[in-house]
Automatic annotation (TrEMBL):
InterPro entries: FIIND_dom. The keyword Membrane does not apply. The lineage of its organism: Eukaryota, Metazoa, Chordata, Craniata, Vertebrata. It comes from the Eukaryota. Residues 1-234 form the FIIND domain. GO terms for cellular component: cytosol. It is found in: Cytoplasm, Cytosol. Keywords: Cytoplasm. It comes from Ameiurus melas. This is FIIND domain-containing protein.
C-alpha cells in the first residue's frame, strides 16, 4: 500500500454472464469486491486451495464494465496468488477444470431446539479458501464448533458421512453428497444430523466412494456447544427484554 487507508471487501456472486466469460476456465475461489481509496492498493494476495501442479495454472479474473479480463499472477506460493493491480473492482481466482484434489475444510455448526427436544448439527464441506467468518455470518443462530477441519477432497466426487453418537436415535441426511467448489456468497450445509437434545458427543467420519477415510473428527462435545448456544440465547433474550420498549417504538 502506498498510504494508510481502510480496505473493505465483500464477497459477491459469480453470475452467469461472468461464468460464460471465463470459459474454458472456472472460478477457483470467491469473487471479492474491494472498496478503498483509488490508488491505495497496488498488490493483492488471494488465498488458494490448489495442491501440487494445479497451482501453476491459477490466474486472476478482473471484472470491469461487465467484462472479464484474465490477469497473470506476479507469483504463486503454496498458499496465495499474488497479483499487481491498477484499479479496484471485483477480482477472483480462476483455473481450468481439473480432477485433481484440492485443500478443503469441514465446518461444524450446532443448534439446540429445546422446544422440540432435538438438536441439529450442520456439516459444511467447503474449499479451504472460503473464509470461515463468512459462513459464520450466514448461520448466526448456530454455534460454530472449532475442531480439526482440514482435508483433501476431489471436486465433483461423492462423499459419504458416518456419524457415531452417544445417542442411537439420530437422523443423518443425505447419506452421501457431491463435493463442489462453492464460490457463491451463500454457503448451505452439505449434511445435517438431527439428534436428541441429550446427545453429549459425536464422532464424524468422511469416506470417499471407495470407502476410504478422508477425514475424521475428534470426539465433538455437544454439551459444551449447547452450553455456549444457551448462554448466547440467554444474553439475547435479556437484551431484548431490556430494550423491548425501544423495539416497539422502532416498529410503530
Amino acid at each position: 500500500m502506498k498510504s494508510k487507508g481502510e480496505v473493505l471487501y465483500r464477497i459477491v456472486s459469480w453470475d452467469s454472464h461472468l461464468l460464460n466469460g471465463l470459459l474454458p476456465k472456472e472460478p477457483a475461489g470467491p469473487l471479492y469486491n474491494f472498496d478503498s481509496p483509488e490508488g491505495c492498493i497496488r498488490r493483492l494476495h488471494f488465498p488458494h486451495c490448489e495442491i501440487g501442479k494445479g497451482k501453476a495454472k491459477l490466474t486472476v479474473a478482473h471484472v470491469a464494465g461487465g467484462k472479464v479480463d484474465i490477469i497473470q499472477p506476479l507469483t504463486v506460493t503454496d498458499t496465495h496468488v499474488i497479483v499487481n493491480i491498477q484499479h479496484l473492482s471485483p477480482f477472483g481466482l480462476t483455473l481450468p477444470r481439473t480432477g485433481s484434489p484440492i485443500r478443503a475444510q469441514v465446518l461444524l455448526f450446532y443448534k439446540r431446539m429445546t422446544e422440540h427436544g432435538k438438536s441439529k448439527l450442520h456439516i459444511h464441506l467447503l474449499p479451504a479458501n472460503v473464509p470461515v467468518i463468512e459462513v459464520q455470518r450466514q448461520h448466526k443462530s448456530y454455534t460454530y464448533i472449532d475442531t480439526t477441519s482440514s482435508c483433501d477432497l476431489k471436486l465433483e466426487k461423492k462423499y459419504k458421512l458416518l456419524c457415531n453418537s452417544t445417542e442411537t436415535d439420530y437422523t443423518l441426511q443425505p447419506e452421501a453428497a457431491i463435493f463442489c467448489r462453492e464460490c457463491s456468497p451463500n454457503y448451505h450445509p452439505t449434511f445435517e444430523v438431527q439428534l436428541s437434545i441429550e446427545a453429549a458427543e459425536v464422532t464424524l467420519t468422511l469416506l470417499d466412494r471407495k470407502g476410504k477415510e478422508v477425514w475424521t473428527s475428534p470426539p465433538v462435545l455437544l454439551t459444551d456447544a449447547g452450553a455456549a448456544s444457551l448462554q448466547l440465547e440467554g444474553v439475547l433474550t435479556s437484551w431484548i427484554n431490556t430494550n423491548q420498549s425501544s423495539f416497539r417504538n422502532l416498529n410503530q
